[in-house]
Design brief:
heterodimer; A: about 260 residues; alpha/beta; Rossmann fold; globular; B: about 220 residues; mainly alpha; MetI-like fold
Chain lengths: ~260, ~220
């Protein structure tokens, strides 16, 4: 059974329709890449999954349970949404680390707040788990640093650790390397690749075509709010069937 | 003579200090409420708040002080300030309303200056609205508003001299009285020393706070 199923998602911003009848599904342990030019609706789609935007139409199911149905207001209760969004983790394009907390505190904060509510974990346990995540990101020696003392690539890796700390079912990346200097993208892509190798379920919105082709199990190409083409990444990227996909990819291979 | 003057200026400083502290005590929280009002999604509320802030910031504090102190007696034939420390109470009220409006604009700028991404990062981590405000936004707002707030608070020190308009003996009035009684002007200039010391201490305090918050950006 698919871990994530998205059916007929539509989203308008005022009069502009940014998502038109988006449907796709994702299997557990798979990495999905979403590619497309800026303004194609990729980021909005990701934001809909994370409840940062509310779709006007459509259904989102996780593990077979409907977690959002635009037609059913009982799936949109504020209190429930808080719980439901924990199915997803989100890594932002510009990191959005909390500047007043150290790398480790950024990773542990949400879990500590949750432990305060439920009393299920001690601070020491949470900190040990946070340290293990930073270690996994190759940042054990940066745990006590504040975000402004870290490079962009390091900040993004802290952000990935922060998202992983809550054990999301599906980890979403919104153009994770777009805000980085070219020489720093490698370290972030390497970390994401390692996660893919460990069968982390992921959705990656990206402009890195080679990365999408090599790491993802499935790729979706979006243009003007619709899914134009989807399938095996090597197929879609090396032999696109649709004219629009060809046109888009040509810009990357020429450049 | 020097000792007499010093003692009476210290008394004047007492009134000024009282006005200063009471104004801060009430205007700091009231300003936050006004800031939330002006940022409200409810249009009538935010519009009404903005009009009030415009009126208060757009007219002299001296005029507001006169209206609040003399208004009730003049228009309603009921001088509500006719009790022991009524003058000081009227003065505090006028200052609180005035300064709360200035503070609200600073708060608002500080709150709106925190990137939306900070709130969103908290949301996707399953935090509640109040956790996001207290654990993430608040300290970033404080850091942003310390410089403009310190400016405003230093202005407040010197604005306490307006209290003389309703016959409160603050520093200037205390110093000036020697011109009339003894024909000497130096006590008036001597008041400047008091203001400078007052502001000097505040400046050291604000610098300390700014330094405390400089560990993050």
């Amino acid at each position: 059974m698919a871990i994530l199923e998205v059916k007929h998602i539509e989203k308008h911003f005022g009069a502009t329709q940014v998502l038109k009848d988006i449907s796709f599904s994702l299997e557990k342990g798979q990495a999905l890449s979403i590619i497309g030019s800026s303004g194609s609706g990729k980021t909005t789609l990701l934001r809909c999954l994370n409840f940062l935007e509310k779709p006007d139409h459509g259904i989102i199911s996780v593990n077979g349970n409907v977690i959002f149905d635009a037609q059913d207001s009982s799936t949109q209760l504020e209190k429930e949404i808080r719980k439901k969004r924990l199915h997803f983790g989100l890594v932002f394009q510009n990191f959005n680390l909390f500047p007043q907390y150290t790398a480790l505190q950024n990773v542990t904060l949400a879990r500590e707040l949750m432990a305060k509510e439920h009393g299920n974990e001690t601070k020491a346990e949470i900190e040990a788990a946070g340290m293990a995540l930073l270690e996994q990101m190759g940042l054990a020696d940066r745990a006590g640093h504040y975000p402004h003392q870290l490079s962009g690539g390091q900040q993004q890796r802290v952000a990935i650790a922060r998202a992983l700390a809550l054990h999301p079912d599906i980890l979403c990346f919104d153009e994770p390397t777009s805000a980085l200097d070219p020489e720093l993208t490698g370290e972030v892509l390497r970390v994401i690749r390692e996660l893919a190798e460990k069968d982390t379920t992921m959705i990656i919105v990206t402009h890195e075509m080679a990365f999408a082709r090599d790491v993802a199990d499935h790729v979706i190409f979006m243009d003007e709010g619709v899914i134009v083409e989807q399938g095996d990444p090597k197929e879609v990227i090396n032999n696109p069937k649709e004219e629009r996909t060809r046109h888009f990819l040509a810009r990357y291979t020429e450049g | 003579m020097f000792l007499t003057v010093t003692l009476s200026l210290i008394e004047g400083l007492g009134s000024a200090l009282q006005l200063f502290l009471l104004t801060l005590l009430f205007a700091l929280p009231l300003g936050l409420i006004i800031a939330f009002g002006s940022m409200s999604k409810c249009r009538p509320l935010s519009a009404a708040t903005n009009v009030i802030v415009w009126i208060i910031r757009g007219t002299p504090l001296m005029l507001q002080l006169i209206i609040i102190f003399y208004g009730p007696g003049m228009w309603f034939d009921n001088n509500i300030w006719a009790f022991g420390s009524g003058r000081m109470a009227a003065c505090v009220l006028a200052f609180v309303i005035n300064y709360a409006c200035y503070f609200s604009v600073i708060y608002r700028g500080g709150i709106e200056g925190v990137p939306v991404g900070q709130r969103e990062a908290g949301e996707v981590l399953g935090m509640t609205k109040s956790q996001i405000f207290f654990k993430i936004t608040l300290l970033q707002v404080v850091k942003r508003i310390v410089p403009p707030m310190s400016n405003e608070i230093i202005t407040l020190v010197k604005d306490t001299s307006l209290a003389r308009i309703i016959a409160i003996v603050e520093l200037i009035k205390a110093g000036e009285s020697y011109m009339k009684s003894d024909g000497i002007t130096w006590p008036l200039f001597y008041t400047a020393v008091f203001y400078l010391l007052f502001v000097g201490i505040l400046t050291i305090l604000f610098n300390w706070v700014e330094k405390k918050l400089s560990y993050f950006r």
